[in-house]
Amino acid sequence: MAVSKHLLYELSVQSPKWQVDYLPQFHKWLTGRTAMTFREDFCGTAKIACEWVKSSPRRKALGLDLDREVLEYAGGVNRPALAPKVQKRLSLRRADVRTPTREKFDWIGAFNYSVFEFHERRELIRYFRAAHASLNTKGTLFLEIAGGDAFLAPSIEERRIKVPGAGMVTQAWEQQQYDPITGRNDYSIHFKLPRGKTMSDAFVYHWRVWSIPEIRDALAAAGFKKSVVLWEQEDGKGKPTGEYLPAENAGHPDFYVAYVVGVKAPN
Predict the structure, then answer these.
(1) Apex 17 CA angle, 201 and 28, nearest 5
(2) Calpha distance 227→131 (Å, rounded)
(3) Beta bridge mates, 92
(4) Contact (CB, 8 A) for 58 and 38
(5) What is the spatial distance between Cα 209 and Cα 169, in angstroms, rounded to a whole number?
(6) Quick one: which of 213, 219, 231 has its CA closest to 266?
(7) Contacts of 93 by beta carbon, 8 Å cutoff, 6+ apart
(8) How far apart are CA 85 and CA 54, in angstroms?
(9) Which pLDDT score, from 0 to 100, does residue 239 have?
(10) Which of 245, 249, 239 is nearest to 259 (CA)?
(11) How many C-beta atoms surround the C-beta of residue 37 within 10 A?
């Protein structure tokens, strides 16, 4: 049975239930409101948007992406897997996230480092302004980012995942040489399937690796009244715990994943 690269991506990279259960708690803390409407930018297979509408009969979502192929997968595989009543609360649209939507949302999310797709500050601000215009008054924009020396150095990291119907698959995350003058780097995801089959360069990314201060400055320039950094906590041995808390200072980890949250109108 042929295995879709999109399914492999979901199983090896994404954690939609965690994001749907956890992040809206910060939205309520920052705004005093319970989020009901969600827009997933750079939605890909819209797995997070699907999880959002599944989680409550009151919740609605819109997924935006420019890639026809991945939207066809989202609309042909993930959306039909939802109950008919749930499907009605999920919309998918091929659109540029730098253009505001007619609809307004309680929160918008750009996950898996998607904001790094913008290489110029003016384009970054343009996106933030469009998101700002697409949010309700008490709205939030969640940006998942990564950084640290280990995120910039050439390397290949492998992990094994179990794929239903296919067996064990090896995902390889490859990083190229970071350019400190342009702030850009190239990344790839490869898959090694059973019986010697491979998917080389299943996904390729050409990213501008924005720093947290640069992102916060751009959010302010776009009109967000406040920004908050959610920083992953460590246990007594210095290992990440998966728990995120607001922070204004941090140490110098070799690698980090953080969420920068733009708040349209703080509580």
Answers:
(1) 120
(2) 14
(3) 63
(4) no
(5) 28
(6) 219
(7) 62, 63, 64
(8) 10
(9) 83
(10) 245
(11) 20
SS (H, E, C) the chain: CCCCHHHHHHHHHCCHHHHHHHHHHHHHHHHCCCCCEEEEECCCCCHHHHHHHHHCCCCEEEEEECCHHHHHHHHHHHCCCCCHHHHCCEEEEECCCCCCCCCCEEEEEECCCHHHHCCCHHHHHHHHHHHHHCEEEEEEEEEEEEECHHHHCCEEEEEEEEECCCEEEEEEEEECCCECCCCEEEEEEEEECHHHCEEEEEEEEEEECCCHHHHHHHHHHCCCCEEEEEEEEECCCCCEEEEEEECCCCCCCCCEEEEEEEECCCC
Confidence band, pLDDT 50/70/90 cuts, at residue 132: very high
- Other CB atoms within a 10 A radius of the CB of residue 11 amount to 16
Q: Which two tokens stand for residue 131?
A: 């998101």
Residues in contact with 114: Cβ distance below 8 Å, sequence separation at least 6, in sequence order: 41, 42, 144
Backbone angles phi, psi at 220, to 5 degrees: -65, -40
Report whether 262 contacts 107 (CB < 8 A): no
115: pLDDT strictly greater than 60: yes
**For helices 16-31 and 47-55, angle between their N-to-C axes, nearest 10 degrees:** 70
Residue 2 has pLDDT above 80, yes or no: no
Question: For 59-70, what is the mean pLDDT?
Answer: 98
Sign for the pseudo-dihedral over CA of 147, 28, 15, 205: negative
What's the CA gap between 194 and 147, in Å, rounded? 32
Tokens of 75: 């609309």
Rg value, the chain, Cα: 18
Tokens found for residue 187: 């990344």
Q: What's the gap between Cα 196 and its chain centre?
A: 31
